[in-house]
Description:
The complex is a heterodimer of chains A (83) and B (136). Chain A has 83 residues and is mainly α. Chain A is built from three helices and no strands. Chain A has helices at residues 2-21, 25-50, 53-82. Helix content of chain B is 82%, strand content 0%. Chain B has helices spanning 8-30, 39-64, 69-116, 121-135. The longest helix of chain B is centred in the last third of the chain and has 48 residues, at 69-116.
Amino acid sequence: MSWILLVMIGILLIPIYESAQEEDVWQRMLAFASISTKASLMILVISVLRDDWMIGLVGVLILSLGNASLMLLAHILRRVNQS
Amino acid sequence: MSFSVLGPAVLSGLSYGCMGIGLWFWLWGTWPLLGDRSVLYKLHGLSVSDTLGSMLIILGLLWKIPREWPLLILALISLAIWNTVLGYVLAYCSAGNGELAERQALARALESSAAGNALAPDTISSDLTGEVSHDG
């Protein structure tokens, strides 16, 4: 099972690199949304591997709260760009 | 939840297959981030591949360890709802800026032309700004 985690870490490096080198704020938001989903899925995989409910709960919370907070951030950025 | 009808080898194969396809989806959607395409193009690929790939990975986990099904099904539902809504909101917010700038430029042009034609510029500008604020 650990090969899955290794492949996930490899794929996670792509949006991390993109968010570090991109100047446009929307492209960065896109990369951050991708990082959030991937990181929470990795936490879920680890929780199933270790058979630990608590870690899995943290993964599910990050999955829903991370996306919701990114939505709020997108609206704030839009308002800032308007004014 | 038990899948005792299927043998353990079949279940294991199904689970690894789902996870492998999910990882391939992830890579397929994330790779275009490195290119120079528009935000909407990247957003489309990324939201489709992230949602479907993650759901396939969770399905694989569900087949692997069915004992944790409440957590994994909660993750599946929140993934399906929130990732879709986030994709829509990001597209709306990132694409709305150009449209808004166009409308503001149009409002300014109308205002100046109305002032030139001795019309009441306040009514036109307030109409347009009212339309813009309704958009958000």
